[in-house]
Please model this.
Amino acid sequence: MNNEVLSRLRVDYPELRFIVGKRDAFRPPKTIIVDPNGSSLSLLHEVGHALCHHRTFNTAIQRLKMEREAWEKARELCRKYDVLFDDDFVEDELDSYRNWVEKKSRCPVCGLTRFQSLDGNYYCPRCDLN
Ligand SMILES: [Zn+2]
Ligand SMILES: [Zn+2]
Model:
């Protein structure tokens, strides 16, 4: 992680709180956990969550949407802070979220893809709707 990027972030976003931790993460509403050994890109992604005012999410699809938004924000921030935006890395990250969504959606009983209601519960079209 580039210390200069972090110092500039602290100046540009005084409303955010940056604290050192084990891995880069966003803790709503205003705290960014910074891994001193992490990448600047990943740090900017977490700042992206904060700037998009992300809070909690109920559904996996909302989560995926937030991840995409935070990366789009990170793309802007990368330009601003002169950090390389690595498209391949970002696509891999999003893919891992897509896989996570897919895995979570699979019915543990019959293997069909379940759907998730807005309150976060999963329903299997075979097991739950008969
Ligand atoms: Zn994220
Ligand atoms: Zn099922």
